[in-house]
């Protein structure tokens, strides 16, 4: 099928089989390997990207569902000069990661979180990150990173 | 990496085209948050998917007379964030915000959830307790007749849901005890009080959403948590699994229903 989609601000036109998952399209076709394929069963959230302004799990949609959509992956967050997005900078500053595997999904999910809930409390941040699993950190520094980004982004 | 069996994919832009394709044997695809996972596990292998995601008629939320109408392809986040829903039936907006996680709520739809009728899904409890009407492309079905146990509904082959019509209660609440890994309801209870009746629906019990008529009778006399504190739930009608025995589920029904009544009282 013919797929027309915008990824990180760039219009992409591709001919792909309809049974292509969005995660596979992003990683294998576009070679944007920052989006991670973790559990592949819609639980861990490592494959989270933002589609039309909302985070979703790219392992659980077929590309046709994203026809005409605007997708942002982790590669689309930093500025052109390489300057980190405030969320990326906060994860670095707060050491909101250990092995780093969940980090791209965690960051995309957190960007959506603060976009729609700029004043989220700590408890709300924890609830809204329910769709992302980290097996290293115990989440403390991840939540701190989101709170740090929250201060920067509202400043 | 999971592979999906090959299928033909259609993305109609009108309801009429979608109905034609589905009546010819295509499988409707709503948000895909259950169907795609089932296809990955090869539990489902449709030869043709008819994606309902590009049909404007199927999306939207509006107040129509004394009803709240939600289009079948409206996603959970739209329901949760809607000021129309929050004003008309706040319990319904709150329920939508409890489904799965926020990424799933971005994709999952009310029509998909209702058509799937997972025995631990949240929406079926709301539809049954509120006495909603399920509109399909060809007819209207009362929630009381629609849900027919474990993944079974009154929908016929080739029939798609177009919208759900909700009567607006005086007050209502939904309380869910989530199974922490799946985020489905281990038990969820939706309580709705109307001018002349009270309806109570339970999800997560095992074999499908059901009305708790003994609690409804007690709450019709006295709408308070105390009124149902000693109302029994038929243990044998509930199921046991690794997450909880049927006796445990029956206990949860009592506790969660009392919390829902307290929640509705505000």
Question: Mind sketching the topology for me?
Answer:
The complex is a heterodimer of chains A (155) and B (266).
Chain A: E1 2-7, E2 10-15, H1 22-29, E3 48-51, E4 54-57, E5 70-72, H2 86-93, H3 103-116, H4 122-128, H5 140-154
Parallel strand pairs in A: 1-5
Antiparallel strand pairs in A: 1-2, 3-4, 3-5
Helix pairs in contact in A: 2-5
Chain B: E1 8-10, H1 15-23, E2 27-29, H2 35-40, E3 48-51, E4 61-64, E5 67-71, H3 76-81, H4 83-88, H5 90-96, H6 102-107, H7 110-116, H8 123-130, E6 133-136, E7 140-142, H9 143-146, E8 161-167, E9 171-178, E10 185-193, E11 198-203, E12 210-211, H10 213-221, H11 225-228, H12 246-265
Parallel strand pairs in B: 1-3, 2-3
Antiparallel strand pairs in B: 4-5, 5-8, 6-7, 6-8, 9-10, 10-11, 11-12
Radius of gyration of chain A: 15 Å
The top level CATH class name of the largest domain in chain B: Alpha Beta
State mean pLDDT of chain A (0 to 100 scale): 97
What is the strand arrangement across the widest sheet of chain B?
A: 4-5-8-6-7
Count of the domains of chain B: 3
**The CATH topology of the largest domain in chain A, please?**
Ubiquitin-like (UB roll)
* Name given to the CATH architecture of the largest domain in chain B: 2-Layer Sandwich
Number-wise, the strands of chain B total: 12
Oligomeric state of the chains in view: heterodimer
How large is the count of helical segments of chain A?
Answer: 5
- Count every beta strand of chain A, where a strand is a DSSP E run of 2 or more residues: 5
What's the shape of chain A?
Answer: globular
- Supply the CATH class of the largest domain in chain A: Alpha Beta
Secondary structure class of chain B reads alpha+beta
| Most extensive contact | A-B, 33 and 31 residues
Strand order in the largest sheet of chain A: 2-1-5-3-4
Q: What is the C-alpha radius of gyration of chain B, as a whole number of Å?
A: 18 Å
């Amino acid at each position: 099928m013919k797929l027309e989609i915008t990824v990180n601000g760039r219009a992409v036109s591709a001919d792909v089989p309809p049974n292509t998952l969005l995660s596979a399209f992003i990683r294998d076709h576009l070679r944007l390997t920052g989006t991670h394929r973790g559990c592949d069963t819609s639980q861990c959230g490592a494959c989270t990207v933002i589609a039309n302004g909302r985070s979703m799990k790219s392992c659980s949609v077929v590309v046709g569902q994203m026809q005409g959509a605007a997708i942002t992956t982790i590669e689309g967050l930093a500025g052109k000069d390489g300057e980190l997005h405030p969320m990326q900078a906060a994860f670095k500053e707060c050491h909101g990661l250990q092995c780093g595997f969940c980090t791209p999904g965690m960051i995309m999910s957190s960007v959506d979180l603060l976009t729609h809930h700029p004043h989220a409390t700590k408890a709300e941040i924890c609830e809204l990150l329910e769709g992302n699993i980290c097996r290293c950190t115990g989440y403390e520094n991840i939540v701190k990173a989101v709170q740090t980004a929250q201060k920067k982004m509202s400043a | 990496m999971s592979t999906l069996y090959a299928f033909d994919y259609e993305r109609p832009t009108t309801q009429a085209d979608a109905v034609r394709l589905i009546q010819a044997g295509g499988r409707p695809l709503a948000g895909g948050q259950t169907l795609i996972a089932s296809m990955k596990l090869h539990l489902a292998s449709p030869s043709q998917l008819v994606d309902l995601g590009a049909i404007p008629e199927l999306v939207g939320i509006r107040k129509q007379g004394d009803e709240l109408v939600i289009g079948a392809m409206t996603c959970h986040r739209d329901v949760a964030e809607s000021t129309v829903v929050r004003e008309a039936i706040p319990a319904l907006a709150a329920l939508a915000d409890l489904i799965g996680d926020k990424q799933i709520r971005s994709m999952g739809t009310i029509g998909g959830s209702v058509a799937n009728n997972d025995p631990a899904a949240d929406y079926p409890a709301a539809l049954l307790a509120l006495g909603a009407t399920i509109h399909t492309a060809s007819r209207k079905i009362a929630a009381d007749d629609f849900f027919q146990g474990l993944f079974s509904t009154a929908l016929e082959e080739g029939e798609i849901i177009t919208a759900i019509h909700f009567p607006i209660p005086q007050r209502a609440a939904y309380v869910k005890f989530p199974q922490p890994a799946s985020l489905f309801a281990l038990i969820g209870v939706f309580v709705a009080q109307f001018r002349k009746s009270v309806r109570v629906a339970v999800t997560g019990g095992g074999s499908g959403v059901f009305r708790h008529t003994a609690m409804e009778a007690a709450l019709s006399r006295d709408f308070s948590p105390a009124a149902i504190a000693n109302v029994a739930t038929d243990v044998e009608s509930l199921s046991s699994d690794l997450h909880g025995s049927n006796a445990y589920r029956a206990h949860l029904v009592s506790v969660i229903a009392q919390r829902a009544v307290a929640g509705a009282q505000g």
